[in-house]
Specification:
Blueprint: H1 7-22, H2 26-52, H3 55-60, H4 62-72, H5 75-83, H6 88-100, H7 106-133, H8 143-155, H9 160-183, H10 187-203, H11 209-221, H12 228-264, H13 266-281
Helix pairs in contact: 1-6, 2-4, 2-5, 2-7, 2-8, 2-11, 4-10, 5-10, 6-7, 6-9, 6-12, 7-11, 8-11, 9-10, 9-12, 11-12
Length: 282
């Protein structure tokens, strides 16, 4: 069995990594985020072709198709973590850790979030064009094309609060995947730690803003009739807000409070121990 980092060590690592990322110049952070968006699109492409290419299975066992879709989608997330690129949804949790410990300012956190989000959007949209339109992979006669169009249609049908809560739950699992990935000290352990939660949120049909930056534009290029403004208002805005809450409030803040506070709680114990030694000396 491989060694693992403790939860406290993971929080320390996240703090250090988030602080270093916040210090990066605009150009480096933007390129990292663009690459992250491209990689998420790659995972989405594989999931569409594998799951969407199984129409008979979809008709007989839709739950198994969801599991199949979720099983291959984490390719992009694993690539992001292992190759050191950047993802807005992970930053929702990690930057909060550095902020709580006063290693970055609120202004810096907002800067990282904005640059990361912009770069992810650029990378995901490029992937949508490069993987679909430029390759002729999503022609009308392909079964995964109809699967993509149906998925995009359903994503834009949900009410605001449904999309918001699906965004919360999606990024809760994505950030758990990030934490579990950092807990492992070997490549295989990190891959497994990332894969399971990401597979879970995808199979459950939760909403990830960066993935949707690939899926919806790809559907638009494949013939889905929707405006950019409708995509933003009906899906991207509520999902992004949900992702922010899911990562920052449900993962970043609890973990940094738990493991920073526990270190502070050792101070009274040290003082009591010192007093006992002094008393014993008398």
């Amino acid at each position: 069995m491989s060694e693992m980092n403790s939860p406290a060590q993971v929080v320390d690592y996240v703090d250090h990594a988030a602080s270093e990322k916040a210090a990066l110049p605009f150009s480096r952070l933007l390129v990292m985020a663009i690459m992250g968006g491209v990689y998420i699109g790659l995972g989405g492409l594989l999931a569409l072709v594998v799951a969407g290419g199984s129409p008979a299975l979809q008709a007989s066992n839709p739950g198994l198709v969801k599991l199949l879709f979720g099983a291959v989608f984490p390719l992009g997330f694993i690539a992001v973590v292992l190759t050191g690129t950047d993802l807005f949804t992970s930053n929702c949790a990690t930057q909060v850790v550095a902020l709580w410990r006063k290693n970055v300012s609120p202004k810096t956190v907002v800067r990282v979030w904005c640059v990361s989000y912009l770069g992810n959007f650029m990378g995901a949209c490029f992937a949508a064009w490069a993987y679909t339109s430029a390759t002729d992979l999503f022609t009308p006669d392909q079964p995964w094309t109809q699967y993509l169009l149906s998925m995009a249609h359903h994503k834009l049908e949900n009410p605001f609060m449904v999309s918001f809560m699906r965004g919360v739950l999606a990024n809760l699992l994505v950030c758990i995947a990030t934490w579990q990935g950092y807990s492992a000290k070997d490549t295989l352990g990190r891959m497994v730690g990332i894969w399971l939660p990401v597979m879970g949120f995808v199979a459950l049909g939760m909403e990830h803003s960066i993935a949707n930056m690939f899926f919806i534009p790809a559907a638009m290029l494949a013939g889905f009739d929707v405006t950019w403004s409708h995509f933003f208002i009906a899906n991207l805005v509520p999902v992004t807000l949900g992702n922010l809450v899911g990562g920052a409030i449900f993962v970043g803040l609890p973990y940094v409070w738990l493991y920073t506070k526990s270190e502070r709680n050792t101070e009274p114990e040290k003082i009591q121990s010192l007093v006992k030694r002094i008393d014993a000396g008398h």
